[in-house]
Write a structure and sequence with these properties.
mainly alpha, 463 residues, 17 helices, 2 domains, 63% helix, 3-stranded antiparallel beta sheet
């Protein structure tokens, strides 16, 4: 009987349009986020590229390329070096004021732009003057003269034509200088020419940046973590240790499995609630007249039917994740083969079970529990609040690519960082067990509500 109900619920769930949307969302996340990022890493490694330069901070270091002794450079890692930070942040501040565009994360998640009014812009320029030791207009004029001379040096144009190019083309392109994945060719590395007040201490500098950040408000993109603006060189020994940790300790696939779970978890943390609520509300609509019967036990399916529904929705939502984990394993194994490396072929499956299954269970349980309690899909709203708190990468230290804690889905949006994962193992285990138990408790409570005779009075009060 239970098996027949389970198969029936599986069939009902997969025929729902919400299930199709869930699969599409998973595929979109896989092919637009995880897969391109992994492919770029493999392409870089197969070319033997040890690192790629970034604008500021540490380089984009490949953990798949084994460093060799005697190289002139092994890349860099982020570090809060006051001289570097002050100069780079001063330029970022100058360019943001020039564009009057300040990037923020609305709700800690959505990438948005903020602008100042005239009074705020005046105050921003005053802060910049304290940082630079020169007025904003002085620095702007100096850069303009530099740009004009460089254009006339590089191209056979008149001064008037050079000015027209700067104003109508070049400076418009610079408005996207800090936009992710937006390549901007610059005439100069302006941060090397930006003035910084010699009388300004680093603590005073950070205080001014704090005031500037407060004016922008919310979670700023550029002014939270000063270590993003400085770097120190990697030594051969440090680079080799990172490589061995990645290949031997993490088994390569462990790092990419965490990234896979990070992206899949964003979908698994919200869409299954829609599916569970849709399935539950479908039954409620079919039986809305029968719920008015005198005999509660006759009007409702039993608690075992609810358990079958829970297991069915969890099964059908976990299945495409499991399939994608196998695809990821095969793809990664093929990608590292030219590097004479191997992967742990069970890592993706193991991480999917340990990291994603509790998330799915809880998401489904919330949808079913609140549908049983209120006869409405209000569980979607409850789950959205929990999801929104988990999706953000903001911590007490600012934007962080790794965030565990009490998250519904574990955030690990970077390849590597094995030491953080290992140090947080028991925290992660407690988190996953906690959400799995919470899911079981919610379903048990829903089964209890379904069987409780007193619920008949509550149902009649809604008529």
């Amino acid at each position: 009987m239970f098996g027949r109900n389970y198969l029936r619920e599986c069939n009902t769930a997969v025929r729902s349009i919400t299930y199709l949307l869930f699969v599409v969302a998973l595929l979109a996340m896989f092919f637009t986020q995880y897969s391109p990022e992994t492919a770029d890493d493999l392409k870089q490694a197969q070319k033997g590229i040890l690192y790629e330069d970034t604008l500021w901070g540490g380089t984009d270091n490949s953990l798949l390329v084994k460093p060799f002794p005697g190289a002139t450079d092994y890349g860099r890692i982020d570090a809060e070096i006051p001289d570097q930070v002050m100069q780079n942040v001063a330029y970022r501040m100058f360019r943001d004021i020039s564009n009057n565009r300040y990037q923020t994360y609305a709700l800690g998640v959505l990438f948005t732009d903020h602008s100042f009014d005239d009074a705020e812009l005046k105050r921003a320029k005053e802060i910049f003057k304290e940082v630079a030791g020169e007025s904003f207009e002085q620095v702007q004029n100096k850069f303009y003269e530099m740009d004009l001379a460089r254009v006339m040096e590089l191209f056979p144009v008149t001064e008037a034509e050079a000015k027209e190019y700067l104003e109508n083309t070049y400076y418009k392109k610079l408005t996207g200088e800090f936009t992710p994945n937006h390549a901007t060719s610059r005439l100069y590395e302006y941060e090397k020419y930006i003035p910084v007040s010699k009388s300004l201490s680093y603590e005073e500098f950070k205080s001014l940046v704090g005031k500037f950040k407060s004016m922008i408000g919310g979670k700023t993109v550029a002014y939270e973590r000063m270590a993003d603006y400085g770097s120190v060189p990697l030594t051969y020994e440090a680079s080799l240790a990172r490589y061995h940790s990645f290949v031997a300790d993490d088994g390569i696939s462990g790092a990419y499995a965490r990234l896979f779970c990070d992206y899949m978890g964003i979908v698994a943390g919200i869409v299954p609630t829609f599916l569970a609520a849709a399935v539950a509300m479908g039954e409620i609509r079919r039986r809305k007249y029968e719920m008015l019967a005198d005999d509660v036990s006759a009007e409702n399916p039993g608690g075992k039917d609810l358990a079958a529904r829970f297991l069915a929705v969890v099964t059908v939502t976990f299945l495409p994740i499991l399939i994608l984990s196998v695809v990821s394993t095969i793809s990664l194994a093929a990608g590292v083969k030219p590097l004479e490396l191997t992967v742990d072929r069970l890592a993706f499956t193991a991480y999917s079970i340990a990291w994603l299954l509790p998330t799915l269970m809880f998401s489904v349980a919330v949808g079913l529990f609140f549908a049983e309690l209120t006869k409405t899909p209000v569980g979607i709203l409850v789950q959205f609040v929990i999801w929104a708190c988990s999706v953000s990468l903001w911590t007490a230290d600012g934007l962080n690519p790794v965030k565990y804690g009490a998250n519904l889905f574990l955030r690990h949006s970077v390849v590597g960082e094995y030491q953080i994962y290992r140090d947080s193992f028991y925290e992660i285990a407690a988190n996953r067990i906690g959400y799995a138990l919470a899911a079981v408790l919610l379903i048990s409570a829903a089964m209890y509500l379904r069987k409780k005779p007193a619920m008949q009075l509550w149902k009649k009060s809604r008529v």
